[in-house]
Amino acid sequence: MSLDERTGVGETTDVGGSPADSRRADGPGRRRRLRLLARVNPVTRLAAIIVMTTPLLFTVDWVSAAIALVLQLVLFAGAGLSLPTIAKRVWPILLAAPIAGVSMLLYGRPSGAVYVDIGLIRITDGSIELAIAVTLRVLAVGLPAVLLFIDVDPTALADGLAQVWHLPSRFVLGALAGARLVGLFLEDWRAMALSRRARGIGDHGVLRRFATMAFALLVLAIRRGSKLATAMEARGFGADRPRTWARESRVGAADLVLVAVAVAVAVIALGGAVAAGTFHPVWA
């Protein structure tokens, strides 16, 4: 399925609120930008995420995280992703970031003026600054990972890992097979819930039901994985000879542009923190 099909751009229905209305509102420019992002190799997206986010882990100041976050939002908007679309895709990160910030606010290293001091809870200037820095950093690290990989085909990613990064095909194909099986977990969980309810043992004891179903799902996953490994070995997936690939994985100008943009974001973010005098290495 192409990116246009997943986003509904290629639909032609003219009912009110339909994809056709969205297509007229978005315009051809947004569709071209989305197709440009879709042409980027999945392994290049992975490299861009590593280049963009790893430097942010070396400092805990809020300036570098804020600069990186603003630049990322601008880039994603330029790529055709609106703020509502971004919020819809990364809502778990939007929930996790404040939680991490609150923990730093209440229990971070105290410094400066003290505003609240109740037992283990101590809110100071230092803990407030640390809470803001951690919240922004979670967003700056999490947003690129989610938005750049939300539409990636696992098969295309495996092709890139094996052909571009030259990782062992045995490892790549095994990881691809495992990724393909992840989607079956939800169906297995739903089927087990229905079968337990049909036997009259699924309507009470929420914690007990969850524990027993989780254990049953684990056993089922192990058995299925063993059978799949045996089947793949029988079909020659574990052979040491060089493999051929049905689809060629390529990198082009769009991949170079994305990596260059990722490097620029990291350099500007860290440079802004150094210029502002807030750069604070994690080891200091």
List the defining traits of the structure above:
284 residues, disordered N terminus, mainly alpha, 2 domains, two-stranded antiparallel ribbon, 11 helices
Q: Report the span from N to C terminus.
A: 48 Å
In terms of per-residue confidence, which ranges show pLDDT below 50 for 5 or more consecutive residues? 1-25
What does the average pLDDT come to? 81
User: What does the oligomeric state look like here?
Assistant: single chain
Number of individual domains: 2
The run of helices and strands is HHHHHHEEHHHHH
**What is the overall silhouette?**
globular
Report what the structure shows:
It is built from 11 helices and 2 strands; from the N terminus they run H-H-H-H-H-H-E-E-H-H-H-H-H. It is mostly helical. The protein has a two-stranded antiparallel ribbon. A hairpin with a 2-residue loop joins strand 1 (114-118) and strand 2. The model is unreliable at 1-25 (pLDDT under 50).
Summarize the structure.
The protein is mostly helical and 284 residues long. Helix content is 69%, strand content 3%.
